[in-house]
């Protein structure tokens, strides 16, 4: 049973309107369901022109205007809230610090945790709203014991539960995802927006990082952290080349290594390790990326925290598949063992655990264990 925070009376709902088609249709559906909806656009940059434009965005002047026009068509009040300082500190600065430390963060997940369902939700509750509504594709389900669970969207192709895996039970109790329980294509969502007279119906999607205007993550980091030449080495420590900043690499990266000397076996090489301490990037064969276990920190549970080892499926990136794991909380950390080795696992990424379609919780990967034959 899909559930908004409650069904017995109309709710006072604050609809977070990014300026994209999904959040506009979500707000329209909430209003159509009889809720008392107010739209709000989050101003997340002190200099909106520096953020990406022409996409689904959530940060530009263009997006703010699109959100306002959508609210006018829906017939709901609309406001712009300035959360630029919080966004800079909790998302942008965190993003830079994580890369500087040799990790690979997910800024959208951090934004959901720190901005949309912390700063925004807290302010909404203080103002007397019952729920925050967003255009995410996920479901809040009412369990038999009266608690609320986070589940994958009905349409797995659009499921966004991975980036919501940081939400705790209190936050879920005040979350509304009107798009999550319908199996519709994006074309159908756009058609619905057009039927409702929403001009954002044809607005293109974007999967880029909203606060990097030109899409050049490495260039953005170089401007923030400065160039720092270091060595690219193989597994034996032999120098193969140089780089201008270890922060410009991620575990599992194949392209852009600019190594002139081919591998002895002629096969591609991948980034195996990033060491910010000595500014060294280690590369090697694909087999050396096999990970059998990991330790993750800062676990957040979408309900009651597990107390014993259990078998789950895990998702390791926003658009990745599932893999079977055994996971257990140990001394405030999460210890995970993979049934089969996986690749492309990097510290800083989030691991989200699932029990069927239910999101159990998430944690930030701190370290990995490689397969013995591929130890670096």
From TrEMBL:
Top-level lineage group: Bacteria
Key word Lipid biosynthesis present: no
Region (Interaction with tRNA) residue spans: 158-160
Enzyme class, broadest EC rank: transferase
GO cellular component entries: cytoplasm
EC number: 2.8.1.13
Active site, UniProt feature: 111, 210
Site-annotated residues for Interaction with tRNA: 136, 349
Pfam families (UniProt xref): tRNA_Me_trans, tRNA_Me_trans_C, tRNA_Me_trans_M
Positions that bind ATP: 16-23, 42, 135
Record key words, sorted: ATP-binding, Cytoplasm, Disulfide bond, Nucleotide-binding, RNA-binding, Transferase, tRNA processing, tRNA-binding
Reaction it catalyzes: S-sulfanyl-L-cysteinyl-[protein] + uridine(34) in tRNA + AH2 + ATP = 2-thiouridine(34) in tRNA + L-cysteinyl-[protein] + A + AMP + diphosphate + H(+)
An example Gene Ontology molecular-function term: tRNA-uridine 2-sulfurtransferase activity
Domain tRNA-specific 2-thiouridylase MnmA-like central: 219-284
Compartment list: Cytoplasm
A GO BP entry: tRNA wobble position uridine thiolation
Keyword set includes DNA repair: no
Major subcellular location class: cytoplasm
Residue span(s) of domain tRNA-specific 2-thiouridylase MnmA-like C-terminal: 292-365
NCBIfam families, A to Z: PRK00143.1 (NF001138), trmU (TIGR00420)
Primary role: Catalyzes the 2-thiolation of uridine at the wobble position (U34) of tRNA, leading to the formation of s(2)U34.
PANTHER family tied to this protein: MITOCHONDRIAL TRNA-SPECIFIC 2-THIOURIDYLASE 1, TRNA 5-METHYLAMINOMETHYL-2-THIOURIDYLATE -METHYLTRANSFERASE
Similarity field: Belongs to the MnmA/TRMU family.
Protein name in the entry: tRNA-specific 2-thiouridylase MnmA
Species whose genome carries this gene: Streptomyces collinus (strain DSM 40733 / Tue 365)
């Amino acid at each position: 049973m899909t559930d908004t925070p409650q069904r017995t009376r109309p709710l006072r709902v604050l609809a977070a309107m990014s300026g994209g088609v999904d959040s506009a249709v979500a707000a329209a559906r909430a209003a159509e369901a009889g809720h008392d909806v107010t739209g709000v656009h989050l101003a997340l940059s002190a200099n909106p022109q520096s953020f990406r434009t022409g996409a689904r965005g959530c940060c530009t002047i263009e997006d703010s205007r699109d959100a306002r026009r959508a609210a006018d068509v829906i017939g709901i009040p609309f406001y712009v809230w300035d959360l630029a300082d919080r966004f800079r500190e909790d998302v942008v600065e965190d993003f830079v610090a994580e890369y500087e430390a040799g990790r690979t963060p997910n800024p959208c997940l951090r934004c959901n945790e720190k901005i949309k369902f912390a700063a925004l939700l807290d302010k909404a509750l203080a103002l007397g709203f019952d729920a925050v509504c967003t255009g995410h594709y996920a479901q809040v389900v009412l369990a038999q014991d009266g608690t609320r669970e986070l589940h994958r969207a009905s349409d797995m192709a659009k499921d966004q539960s991975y980036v919501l895996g940081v939400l705790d039970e209190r936050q879920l109790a005040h979350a509304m995802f009107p798009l999550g329980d319908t199996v519709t294509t994006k074309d159908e969502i756009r058609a619905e927006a057009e039927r409702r007279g929403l001009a954002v119906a044809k607005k293109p999607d974007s999967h880029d990082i909203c606060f990097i205007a030109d899409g050049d993550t490495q260039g953005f980091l170089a401007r923030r952290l400065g160039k720092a030449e270091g060595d690219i080495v193989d597994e034996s420590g032999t120098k193969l080349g140089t780089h201008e900043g270890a922060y410009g690499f991620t575990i599992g990266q194949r392209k852009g290594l600019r190594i002139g000397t081919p591998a002895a076996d002629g096969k591609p090489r991948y980034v195996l390790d990033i060491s910010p301490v000595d500014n060294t990037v280690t590369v090697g064969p694909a087999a050396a990326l096999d990970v059998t276990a990991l330790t993750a920190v800062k676990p957040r549970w979408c309900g009651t925290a597990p107390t014993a080892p259990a078998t789950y499926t895990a998702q390791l990136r926003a658009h990745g598949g599932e893999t079977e794991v055994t996971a257990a909380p140990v001394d405030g950390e999460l210890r995970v063992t993979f049934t089969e080795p996986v690749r492309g696992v990097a510290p800083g990424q989030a691991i989200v655990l699932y029990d069927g379609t239910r999101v159990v919780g998430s944690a930030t990967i701190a370290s990995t264990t490689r397969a013995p034959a591929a130890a670096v």
